[in-house]
Amino acid sequence: MDLQLMEKQLKAVSDSNRLTLLSCLKSAEVCVCDFVDILGISQPAVSQHLKKLEEAGIITARKVGTWKHYRLIENQTPIIRAVLDELEERQACNCGTGTSCD
Amino acid sequence: MDLQLMEKQLKAVSDSNRLTLLSCLKSAEVCVCDFVDILGISQPAVSQHLKKLEEAGIITARKVGTWKHYRLIENQTPIIRAVLDELEERQACNCGTGTSCD
DNA sequence: TCTATATATAAGTTAATTATTATATAAGAG
DNA sequence: CTCTTATATAATAATTAACTTATATATAGA
């Protein structure tokens, strides 16, 4: 595994906000709006965190109307797999409950 | 695994200089003086990197005269084990060749 | 088309990291 | 005891990262 990619992925996951995002994504797709509530930071800050995880090849997204749903990619590197294994699953998303996105 | 420890360990390994230190430590004990040559940064900078790895519970040290030899601890967490598995071993140390420490 | 909502990007600020230089500590050699 | 060498700590400068506010883009709906 390339040392540069390794560093990039490790930097991407070495932040408590982003680890929280990943623990939510373990079990389900989550949309950006839900993360704003969970982390208690501004929407642009959330977008920037998600971008970092996406650029590191850890998550991906699909558009659903005006919403954007993020999820883990399928084939993670061994290091990211180990990180995900250590993270507790966290129920995060209101998606489907009708309160926000769906 | 505690989220705080996890973040601390991930921060400790998410730096290319420190990843290089670890790749040297995979195969052997290494003393500080050798790392200065390898990384091409100042001796205090090396000390600070080693301290960060030590505080994260990844490496430990023993004194040998005025030298200090660092090595990996035996029981690594799953994440750090995954990181070490991905790192290529690197021959780093002059120890034993008589050029510097021994 | 105009408006409202969700998300992204840009610019700027604050905070955290990583480096440097200077100095302290500790051990061995003379 | 003094000098030298190896390492650590302190203070500080430089770089990078994370957040905020303001603005842009894109989509849905009236």
Automatic annotation (TrEMBL), chains A, B:
Domain HTH arsR-type: where?
1-91
**UniProt xrefs under InterPro entries:** ArsR-like_HTH, HTH_ArsR_DNA-bd_dom, HTH_MetalResp_TranReg, WH-like_DNA-bd_sf, WH_DNA-bd_sf
What Gene3D superfamilies would the database entry show? Winged helix-like DNA-binding domain superfamily/Winged helix DNA-binding domain
Q: Which UniProt keywords apply?
A: DNA-binding, Transcription, Transcription regulation
The organism's superkingdom is given as Bacteria
> What NCBIfam families has UniProt attached to this entry?
HTH_metalloreg (NF033788)
Q: What is this protein called?
A: Metalloregulator ArsR/SmtB family transcription factor
Q: What is the lineage of its organism?
A: Bacteria, Bacillati, Bacillota, Bacilli, Bacillales
